[in-house]
Structures are given as C-alpha cells and as structure tokens.
Design a protein that fits this description.
Elements lengths: L16 E3 L7 E5 L5 E5 L2 H6 L6 E3 L1 H15 L1 H45 L5 H30 L7 H19 L5 H11 E8 L3 E8 L4 E7 L12 H10 L5 H10 L12 H11 L8 H4 L5 H8 L3 H10 L6 H4 L6 H4 L2
Parallel strand pairs: 1-5
Antiparallel strand pairs: 2-3, 3-4, 5-6, 6-7
Helix pairs in contact: 3-4, 3-5, 8-9, 11-12
C-alpha cells in the first residue's frame, strides 16, 4: 500500500508536493531532449483565477534530497529506532491488557452480584424482578464487550523480536542504499518506496533555497532545506567528490569495475541514477580522465590493498592500519620482502 499516484516520468515526488504559499498541489512538467528534465510548479491560481504562477523549481535537487532522507530513515539507525518503537508499543499493549483484565474481573463480579440479587427477589414482585434482570443483562453485556476488547488487543500484540530477526532488519537497512542506487532500481520502485513512507511534502520557495516540511506516514514531521540552483548553474553536474574518486579509481581499474564500487559507496550520477560502465565512461570522457590500461599498475609498481595483504600474508584490516599509522617499515613481513614504497604500492 502506498500513498499518491505512481505516474510515468523521472520525477519522484509527483503528486506529493503541496505549495506552502497557496496550499495547492504542485504539478510536474518535463522538458529537454528526451523529456526527462522534470520541473515542479504551482499553477492552480493561474489556471483557476488568472493570477501569476506561485512557485516553480527544478526537480533534481529536491528529488535527490528527499531520496537521501528516505534512505537515512531506512538505514540501521532508523530501523533501530523503529525496533525501539515496536518494543515500547509492546510494553504499552501489555499494560493495556493488564488494565482490561482488571476491568473484566470487576465486571464479572458486578454481573455475579446482579444475578444473586435477581435470584433473591420474590417472583410476585414482577417490577423489581424485571429491573434486576435488566441490570443483570447490562452487566453481562459489559463483560462481553471487555472480553472482545481484550481479544482484539491480544490479536494485534507485537511479540518481542529475536536477535536473529533484529540482525536481519539491521542488515536490510545497510542494503537499502545499495539497492536504491543500483542500476536496476527503476523510478517506479523508488516512487512506491517514497509514497509508502511519506504522506505529503509542503514546500515554500525562498530567495536561495526550498523550505520543506515532510509529513511522514504515522504523523511525524521533519523540516528540510534544499539549496536552489543558481542562475546558469548546470543542474545535472556530478558531485566533485565523485569525479575525484573516479579519477583515482581510473588509475587502477577499468570502467566496468569502477561502477559497482561507486554504487556500493552510495554515489549517484548527476540525475540521481546508479552507475554503469557506460556512465563511468561518459564521465571520464567529459572530464578528460584517461582510461585504465591493462598492466598499467604493474608498470608503476603499484598493488591494491587486497594484493598487498596477500603478499604480506596479513589481513586487509592490518594493511589499512599500517597505512594509517605509516608504520610499514616495522612490519616483519615487509622486512623479509622488497616491495619498494608500500604506502604508494597499497594505494
């Protein structure tokens, strides 16, 4: 079950945005060569009353920011908080069950007392007998209502999670970002996830940013501020840290091997998509980054961390620690092997 319609197009938030200035729903319009450039706008006042358009802004930044917030909520910390809420609700339900049991005990006592009063009345006194019988029936109905409430509360009671179930949930949170940024994740899948978690997003446009209030399913609210593109700024620009990372990786790995590394690190393209070999190749060509040649690392006498660990017969964690401590020379395995500059070779 999800809220909002899952419509065609790249825009993730179509149908969820509401104008914070006039409270109307925002529409989305597509432009560009392939019609993939989405832009949200509020035209309700213009269409209905002939006024000016309230707000209009590009969809790339806000889609990316809300997507990152959704992933943050689904990460292990968010799932841990959800598990804590489940445990708190279980304790609250147990307390409610105890109160219902006490109320049932009291109602049964009153019903038994009403029956004794009815049995003690003389049959000739019909008016008193009828009144006592009515009271007895009312007490029995009260007992039945409380028992039904107890049974219904027990049916929805949440059991305590086992340690295995808890670890599975936390592992699911760690895999969410990888699955979200994978090349196989379609916009429709992301839209369904967002609409399952979010009821509505109220957005106001300020001078240099978008002020959002996200209404999560369940009633929670969280504010967010998303920076707007400056005039003339390219909306699809890849983040500088991604370009730097590709520059480093291109010295060691081909494009096909770089793509899964970027996806595991949670990096996305300028459009918020996952990385593929062709997208890495396009970024390299656009940025003038030379491709990797087979045997290039061997010519520079460089090895990866995995290769260095295999040569030294230690774990990768040990190699990483030695690099951080810059203490390779003291390692016994290195003193028996001539590896040149290990910090450079274990890049």
């Amino acid at each position: 079950m999800s809220r909002g319609s899952v419509r065609r197009g790249e825009a993730l938030l179509a149908g969820l945005l509401r104008c914070g200035h006039c409270s109307r729903k925002l529409h989305v319009a597509y432009s560009g060569e392939n019609g993939s450039s989405g832009r949200y706008h509020c035209r309700g006042g213009q269409i209905n009353h002939g006024g000016d358009r309230r707000i209009s802004f590009g969809g790339v930044r806000i889609d990316r920011a809300v997507g990152a917030e959704v992933i943050e909520r689904l990460q292990p910390l968010g799932i841990e908080a959800a598990i804590g809420a489940m445990e708190a609700r279980r304790v609250e339900n147990a307390e409610k069950q105890r109160q219902i049991e006490l109320a049932i005990e009291q109602a049964r006592y009153e019903a038994a007392r009403a029956r004794r009063q009815y049995d003690a009345v003389e049959p000739e006194n019909r008016l008193v007998a009828a009144e006592l019988e009515q009271r007895w029936n009312e007490r029995l109905l009260a007992v039945r209502a409380l028992e039904e409430e107890r049974n219904g509360s027990a049916a929805i009671a949440q059991s305590t999670l086992t340690e295995t179930e808890r670890q599975r949930l936390l592992a699911l949170g760690r895999d969410v970002e990888v699955a979200w940024n994978s090349p196989g994740a379609t916009p429709a899948t992301r839209k369904r996830i967002i609409r399952t978690l979010i009821d509505e997003i109220v957005v106001r446009v300020e001078d240099d940013a978008l002020d959002l209030v996200i209404r999560w399913a369940g009633g929670d609210h969280s504010p967010m501020r998303v920076r707007k593109n400056r005039a003339g700024q390219h909306r699809w620009g890849t983040d500088a840290d991604v370009v730097e990372l590709v520059t480093v990786l291109a010295r060691q790995l081909p494009d096909k091997a770089i793509a899964p590394i970027l996806n595991r690190a949670g990096k996305t393209t300028g459009r918020g998509n996952g990385w593929t070999r062709s997208r890495v190749c396009f970024l390299r060509n656009h940025r003038g980054i030379p491709p990797y040649r087979n045997g290039e690392r061997a010519e520079r006498s460089e090895v990866t961390m995995e290769e260095a660990a295999r040569v030294l017969n230690v774990s990768e964690a040990t190699v990483r620690r030695l690099i951080q401590e810059k203490n390779f020379a003291s390692h016994p395995a290195l003193q028996r092997r001539s590896l040149g500059d290990p910090c450079r070779r274990s890049r």
